Amino acid sequence: MTGPRTDTEPDVTRLRAATDRDLTRLATLQAGTFAHARLRNEIIENNLNLVTHACNRYTHRADLREDLRQVAAIGLIKAVDGYRPGHGAGFLAYAMPTISGELKRYFRDHTWAVHARRGEQELYLRLVRARDDLSVRLGREPDHTELAAHLDMDTTEVRMGLDLGAALRADSLDAPPPGGNPDDRPGSGYDLRGESDPALDLVDNLQSLRPLIAALDERDRRILKLRFWDDLTQAEIGKALGLSQMHVSRLLTQAFAALRAGMLAPT
C-alpha cells in the first residue's frame, strides 16, 4: 500500500510535461524573433526551481548564496539553449548536470584565493558534498574515518583533501583577530604576523654598493671576492696573489675607505 500522494507531485509532473512541449515548440521558432525570446524566457522562469534545488547542496557557503544563484541561473539558460527535444532522457536529465557543471566551474575558477590544481579542487568539493550528506544522515558532522569509509578512500587522503579548504579564502591582514577580549588584542591580524627583518635594511646598502665595487680596480675587486665570497683569510689571499698578508690588509683597508666614502657621499 502506497502513501498518499502530495498535491505538489501532479504540479511537478505537469510542469515537466509543459516544459517539454514548450521546448519542442521553441525549436520550431526562429531565434531572435519576439516569439522565440518570449517563449524562451517563459521556459527559464518556469524552471527556476531547478536553480534553487542545485544551490541547496551548497548551503554551507552562505557568503556566496547570491553569486551561486546567478551562476546556476546561467547554467539553466545554457541548458534551455542547448537542449534538443527528442534526444536523451528529457530536459530535466539534461538541465541538472548542466547547472551543476556551471557551479563546479565557478568554484574551480573563481572562489580559490590560492591556486589549487583541478584534481585537488574536485577532491575537496567531493569531500564537502559527502560531508554534508553524511551530516544529514548521522545528525552530526562525520569524522575523517567515516568520510573515508563512505567514499572508499584513505583517511590521509581525506585529511589532505579537506585541508585544501584553507586555500579557498585569504583573510585580510587588516581584519581584527578572532576571539579574546578586544581590549587585550592587537588592532589587526597584521600585528600578530611577522616582525621587523633586519636583513631588509641591507637591501638598499647592497644596491648602493654595486656601482662602487664596480669602480674599484680589478685587483681590489678580486681581493674582496676572495675575502667575502670565498671566505679566505688575509694570509690565504696573499698566498694566492703573491702578496704579503700586511699588503693584503692595507689593500682591504683602502678598498673599505673608498666604499665608505662613496656610501656617505651626498646624492
Low-confidence stretches: 1-8
Q: How would you name the CATH homologous superfamily of the largest domain? A: RNA polymerase sigma factor, region 2, helix turn helix motif
The residue-averaged pLDDT reads 77
Q: Find the structural class using helix and strand composition.
A: mainly alpha
Largest sheet: none
Number of helices: 12
Strand content: under 5%
Q: Could you characterize what this model shows?
A:
The chain has three domains: 10-111, Orthogonal Bundle (Rna Polymerase Sigma Factor, Chain: A), CATH 1.10.1740; 113-169, Arc Repressor Mutant, subunit A (Orthogonal Bundle), CATH 1.10.10.10; 200-264, Winged helix-like DNA-binding domain superfamily/Winged helix DNA-binding domain (Arc Repressor Mutant, subunit A). Helix content is 63%, strand content 0%. It has twelve helices and no strands. The chain has helices at 8-26, 34-46, 48-55, 65-82, 91-110, 118-138, 144-151, 155-163, 201-214, 218-228, 234-241, 245-264. Helix 6 crosses helix 8 (155-163). The longest helix is centred in the middle third of the chain and has 21 residues, at 118-138. It is elongated and about 105 Å long.
